[in-house]
Known about the structure:
Pfam families: Hydrolase_4. GO terms for molecular function: hydrolase activity. The structure is a single chain. The protein is of the alpha/beta class. The chain has a domain at 91-266: Alpha/Beta hydrolase fold, catalytic domain (Rossmann fold), CATH 3.40.50.1820. It is 23% helix and 20% strand. It is built from 6 helices and 11 strands. The strands form 2 sheets. It has a 9-stranded mixed beta sheet with strand order 3-4-6-5-7-8-11-10-9. The protein has a two-stranded antiparallel ribbon with strand order 1-2. Helix 5 packs across helix 6 (215-226). The radius of gyration is 29 Å and the shape is globular. Mean pLDDT is 80; it is low at 1-9 and 247-279.
Amino acid sequence: xxxxxxxxxxxxxxxxxxxxxxxxxxxxxxxxxxxxxxxxxxxxxxxxxxxxxxxxxxxxxxxxxxxxxxxxxxxxxxxxxxxxxxxxxxxxxxxxxxxxxxxxxxxxxxxxxxxxxxxxxxxxxxxxxxxxxxxxxxxxxxxxxxxxxxxxxxxxxxxxxxxxxxxxxxxxxxxxxxxxxxxxxxxxxxxxxxxxxxxxxxxxxxxxxxxxxxxxxxxxxxxxxxxxxxxxxxxxxxxxxxxxxxxxxxxxxxxxxxxxxxxxxxxxxxxxxxxxxxx
Length: 279
């Protein structure tokens, strides 16, 4: 089938353009390509959903719980609740050598967007004076209730109050799992939640330090830059950032970035370490 379209449009053509004798004002002819073979090879995209592997050493009931869709917070909370005891029994140094007597607390706070944000604290043994508060920002795909659990207990045993939240869409907080609609939104949520936490009676008036790992390192830096007078120091572990400072002075224990802050880039956690965060 041929489609014929008579055009009355007459474009302006420079002098001498029609000397070839070609009729540039003939009707446009649009023809269907009757060649059965495509001009370019077609590409097929196959989307496969892989079944979650069975977790060895746990019951079928727990495997059924672990295999559910974890896109939303209620499912993630069910899994965490079912595996809490198993987590504490893992053959890992952070759990096997965790100090005893650390006080913990868990709660939820509604943020300004109406999302339930999971919060947790680790405090030294009763009677131990708290030196300051360390507020943790976890990385992408992480949560404050797994490996950080062991890390927090070790730091709390050194005399610090440790506080952590799950970012919206991660861990036990509400939101689509792993979806970050706005990075600044996560930063603002961190500022909002830790402003509330700083008012807790056990740490009111003490030094406040923000602690970020991986993506949480970038979040911690942005939170510090937005409100520099709200923090007494920052600790970064493998931060998602690039430092470009011509006046950077490097030393063996950290990087002096300004008169107010030293950014400590921690390479690894050392057994029986003594933690002291300073500005």
